[in-house]
């Protein structure tokens, strides 16, 4: 009987851990692993690291999906993005779009200057 109680307790805690993990995962805005390639030029914030390149955090999810699939399908031949996107799956593109479309556009926010004594 003691073993049965032990199994019930372990099962209960395992279930609670699983439910808690799922709930945390739903609200977490952790970048998908595939984002490492994107962030080299677009940073994790979505702001372009190179002047003139598009900031992804100002686009909608659908715009990002459309652009990534367009590059993957070589609608823009010989683009740098075609080389980056050619192996992306639809799910990876969706994950990238979910992440970047949820980022705040900080490109137009004023820069706060800190001076000694303030």
UniProtKB/TrEMBL annotation:
Instruction: Provide the GO MF annotations for this entry.
Output: electron transfer activity; heme binding; metal ion binding
Protein known as:
Cytochrome c domain-containing protein
What the entry lists under PROSITE patterns is as follows: CYTC (PS51007)
Q: Does the keyword Transport apply?
A: yes
Q: Which InterPro entries match?
A: Cyt_c-like_dom, Cyt_c-like_dom_sf, Cytochrome_c_Oxidase_Subunit
User: Which positions carry the signal peptide feature in this UniProt record?
Assistant: 1-25
Give all residue intervals belonging to the Cytochrome c domain.
20-104
Which keywords does this chain's UniProt record carry?
Answer: Electron transport, Heme, Iron, Metal-binding, Signal, Transport
Keyword Secreted among UniProt keywords: no
């Amino acid at each position: 009987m003691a073993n049965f109680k032990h199994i019930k307790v372990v099962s209960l805690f395992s279930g609670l851990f699983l439910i808690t993990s799922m709930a945390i995962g739903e609200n977490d805005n952790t970048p998908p692993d595939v984002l490492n390639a994107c962030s080299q030029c677009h940073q994790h914030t979505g702001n372009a690291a190179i002047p003139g390149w598009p900031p992804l955090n100002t686009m909608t999810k659908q715009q990002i999906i459309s652009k990534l699939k367009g590059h993957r399908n070589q609608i823009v031949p010989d683009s740098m993005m075609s080389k980056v996107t050619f192996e992306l799956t639809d799910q990876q593109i969706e994950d990238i779009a979910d992440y970047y479309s949820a980022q705040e556009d900080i490109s137009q926010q004023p820069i706060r200057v800190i001076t000694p004594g303030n």
